[in-house]
UniProtKB/TrEMBL annotation:
UniProt xrefs under InterPro entries: Glyco_trans_1, Glyco_trans_4-like_N
Native species: marine sediment metagenome
Domain Glycosyltransferase subfamily 4-like N-terminal: 16-117
Transmembrane annotation, as ranges: none
Listed name of the protein: Glycosyl transferase family 1 domain-containing protein
Pfam family for this entry, one: Glyco_transf_4
Record-annotated Glycosyl transferase family domain positions: 129-294
C-alpha cells in the first residue's frame, strides 16, 4: 500500500489468520530476524513466546494498558512475560502493576510514550472548529477520550455548576464514544447544562489537533489512566491540562508545571482547578508553554523510539 511505501522500514503483512503462527515463524527464518519487539496485542506476545521457544529469538514487550489487571489474563501474562528479555512499561504505574503480579522487577523498564510535536503544535488554526460550534468569546474546556466511567467525564459535568458561578461563559466539549454516553447526556440534562455541553462523536485522529487548539483547558480526571497520551497531545498544542492525581497521570502531567492534578473523585477540586486556569491566563499560558517544552525536549516519538532502541540493544555492540 502507499502507507507501507512511505515508511522508513520494511512492512510485511500476513493475510491468513488461520496460519498466522506458521506464517510468522517462516517469516522470521526467511528474514533472519534477530529480535522481536511486540508493541501491542496479547496475540502477538504469544507468537513471540512461541518464536522464542522454537527459534530461540529474544523478544521485548511494550505494555500500554491495564489489561494486566484482568484475573483471567494474569496466568498467561506471567508465563509469556517471564521469558521476555525486557518489558517496557509506559508508566511507573504500569511497572508497579507488573511487579504486583510477580513479574521480575529487573525485567521491567519504564519508557514514557511520546507525541508528534509537528502534528500537535501551538500554531494550529482552530477558527473552523470555533465557528462550527459557536465558541467565539467563550472559555472552552475539552475532553477527548473514550466515554468510560473511570475517565471521569461525569465528574467534570458535576463540577460545572460550581465552575460556572465564576466562569459563566464556560463551554464543555466532550469528544468520544462509549458505553457512558447516555449516562453523561442524562447528567447534562438533569443539571440543566444542555447549552453548556457539546457532545461530539469520535473525530479522526488527524482532526484532533484542531480541537486541542480550540480549547483553553484540557481536562481528563481519570482514576485509572495507564499513562494518558491525550495530556501530551494537549500540552504539545500549548494547552494546560487537568488530570487525576493517581495512576499513569502522575507521569504524564507534572503538577504545577504542565498542568494541575486533582482528586478524580472530588468535584470541588475539579471545579477549583478549572476556575483557577480559566481565570488566570498567565498561569494557564505558563503551564501550556512548559508542557510544550517538555514535549519538544523529552516526550516526542523520536526520543521515545531512541530510548526503546537503547533498552533493546543494551550492552550490545552497535555493529550487531
Amino acid at each position: 500500500s502507499e502507507f507501507d511505501k512511505k515508511e522508513r522500514f520494511k512492512i510485511i503483512r500476513t493475510r491468513k489468520k488461520v496460519s498466522s503462527r506458521l506464517a510468522f515463524l517462516l517469516l522470521l527464518k526467511r528474514e533472519r530476524i534477530k529480535k522481536i519487539l511486540v508493541g501491542h496485542g496479547s496475540h502477538y506476545i504469544r507468537l513471540a513466546f512461541l518464536a522464542n521457544f522454537l527459534l530461540k529469538i529474544p523478544y521485548c514487550i511494550v505494555i500500554h494498558g491495564t489489561e494486566i489487571l484482568l484475573p483471567e489474563r494474569q496466568r498467561s501474562i506471567q508465563k509469556t512475560f517471564s521469558k521476555a528479555a525486557k518489558i517496557i512499561a509506559v508508566s511507573n504505574f504500569i511497572k508497579k502493576l507488573l511487579v504486583q503480579i510477580r513479574i521480575p522487577e529487573g525485567k521491567v523498564v519504564v519508557n514514557f510514550n511520546g507525541v508528534d510535536p509537528v502534528k500537535f503544535n501551538p500554531g494550529i488554526d482552530s477558527s473552523k472548529v470555533r465557528e462550527k460550534y459557536d465558541l467565539a468569546g467563550k472559555k472552552v474546556i475539552l475532553t477527548i477520550s473514550r466515554l468510560a466511567r473511570y475517565k471521569g467525564q461525569h465528574r467534570v459535568l458535576e463540577a460545572l455548576p460550581q465552575a460556572l458561578k465564576k466562569v459563566p461563559d464556560l463551554v464543555y466539549l466532550i469528544i468520544g464514544a462509549g458505553e457512558e454516553e447516555k449516562y453523561l447526556r442524562k447528567i447534562a440534562r438533569d443539571l440543566g447544562l444542555e447549552r453548556k455541553v457539546i457532545f461530539i462523536d469520535e473525530v479522526a485522529h488527524n482532526e484532533a489537533p484542531l480541537y486541542y487548539a480550540a480549547c483553553d483547558v484540557f481536562v481528563l480526571p481519570s482514576n485509572l489512566e495507564p499513562f494518558g497520551i491525550a495530556y501530551l497531545e494537549a500540552n504539545a498544542c500549548g494547552k494546560p491540562v487537568i488530570g487525576g492525581n493517581n495512576g499513569g497521570s502522575l507521569d504524564a502531567v507534572i503538577d504545577g508545571e504542565t498542568g494541575l492534578l486533582v482528586d478524580p473523585f472530588s468535584t470541588d477540586q475539579i471545579a477549583n482547578a478549572l476556575v483557577e486556569l480559566l481565570t488566570n491566563p498567565e498561569l494557564a499560558q505558563r503551564l501550556g508553554n512548559r508542557g510544550r517544552e517538555r514535549i519538544e525536549k523529552e516526550l516526542n516519538w523520536e526520543k521515545t523510539v531512541k530510548r526503546i532502541k537503547e533498552i533493546i540493544y543494551q550492552g550490545e555492540s552497535k555493529n550487531n
